[in-house]
Amino acid sequence: MKKMILVLILSILMLSISGCTDEVVEETPASSAGSITDSETTADLVPIDNLPENYELLGIRDLSAETVGSEYAVVEGIVGGSEGLYTNAESTDVYVDVIETNSAENAEEFINAYKGEFSDLAVGDRFTDVSINGHSAVQILDYVIVGMEDAKRYTYIWSNGKFVFVVGGATEDSEVLLTLAESTGY
What we know:
Elements: H1 2-18, H2 42-45, E1 55-63, H3 65-71, E2 78-88, E3 92-101, H4 104-116, E4 127-132, E5 135-146, E6 149-160, E7 163-169, H5 174-182
Antiparallel strand pairs: 1-2, 2-3, 3-7, 4-5, 5-6, 6-7
């Protein structure tokens, strides 16, 4: 019995000396993939380099708080935004809007207010929960008239901190938009 206790004490002593029981200190990386620093602007968050194949950046424009409110939803705390305009396969116009709000709470309010602008569909679900770059996002299904027929249009919207990302365009192919959404890295 004494030998057993002695072996146990020696094992614990060796473990503590080796550092295996040191206090674990979590380090927060200065800049990890998908994190947004305080110094970044909405224009910095619009994908410019390393675009997916067949995507070309046409330009970036600033969005005032008033423009964001008129195009999406009017909520407190909208600072402004930037819009990246792209073409896919030289024929489809798509965009990435990055909207800055005063806080993460304002960003969530913005998304909820924008979703509230849509009525229910007669058949099917308008909103589908998806994941983009590890963030909870919403795919919004809408219909437009193209050549006397209904055509599907998709929009992806999600937030990362105080920023809201919106990706949409003139396509029925949700994968075209999802690919562009993922290229944001956020």
